[in-house]
Amino acid sequence: MLNPNNHIILCYVVRHGTTELNAGHCFRGHIDVPLDKQGCRDANKLASLFDNIDLSHIIASDKQRAMKTAQTIAERKDMKVHPTAALRPWDVGEFSGKPKNKENRDKLDHYVDHPEIEVPDGESLAEFKSRVRPAIVEALELANRSGEPALLVGHSSIVHEVGDMFHSDHKALLVHPGGAIAIYACDGKISAETIFRPREGSIGASSADIVS
User: Fold this and answer.
1) Is 2 contained in some domain?
2) Structural domain span for residue 62
3) I need a labelling partner for 88 at 20 to 30 A (CA). Which of 67, 71, 137, 185 fits?
4) What is the SS3 assignment for 10?
5) CB under 8 Å to 1, separation ≥6 — which residues?
6) pLDDT tens track for 95-113
7) How many CB atoms sit inside 10 A of residue 56's CB?
8) Is-contact 194 181, C-beta < 8 A?
9) How far apart are CA 50 and CA 65, in angstroms?
């Protein structure tokens, strides 16, 4: 965890627990897939992580995998979860549910490299960014007003966006399902850091891995 003497935590960002599509290395997008058994264990580990951390709000994507993760954390803190469509993952349309093989990654990379082009049956990367960034900024403002950090529960694409916002590198903060990062202020600057990786090992990624 970050040293509280040197950092002021503004917001935590959590990636939901594992689903069958995660385990099968498939794109998820807006498919409303539930947590699997491992995902429930991931959520309980996150609940333990936040047991002794004061939070102002718990805000989650309204997809059930994120809501279940958030509710598992909230129940142990006697808090309410605030669902929002703003934290939904990037809607990759026709790629949703398809395997993350080289052919599909290469096809989706076209939309990453051309963020104004809409994915068929989905949304453009620019549209995704335009709804997610205000939600992250709002969470930081909540922390400033309340004096305690907010918790956002979302998807890998949300984590990638935080990396892009604060490190200009969407791969800077990669975590597996059930991982967590913190956005913090230090010496007048805002940055972000990974604070919990649920599984050991390298997290290799292509541009197309920003889908959750």
Assistant:
1) no
2) 10-187+195-210
3) 185
4) strand
5) 182, 195
6) 999 999 999 999 999 999 9
7) 17
8) yes
9) 18
Q: Are strands 150-154 and 81-84 parallel, antiparallel or unpaired?
A: unpaired
* pLDDT category of residue 4 using cuts at 50, 70 and 90: low
Has residue 48 been placed in a domain? yes
pLDDT digits over 145-189, tens only? 999 999 999 999 999 999 999 999 999 999 999 999 999 999 889
In three-state secondary structure terms, 2 is coil
Report residue 175 CA to chain centroid gap.
Answer: 9
Report yes or no on 58 lying in a domain: yes
Nearest CA to 115 out of 160, 60, 84, 156 is that of 160
- Round the CA-based radius of gyration of the chain to a whole number and report it: 16
pTM: 0.91
The CATH number assigned to the domain holding 79 equals 3.40.50.1240
| Region of poorest pLDDT, from 21-30, 126-135, 195-204 | 195-204
Q: Is the CB of residue 15 less than 8 Å from the CB of residue 156? A: yes
What is the predicted pLDDT for the residue at 167?
97
- Our count of domains for the chain comes to 1
For the record, the structure tokens of 167 come out as 């490190």
pLDDT of amino acid 200: 43
User: What tokens does 103 get?
Assistant: 């052919």
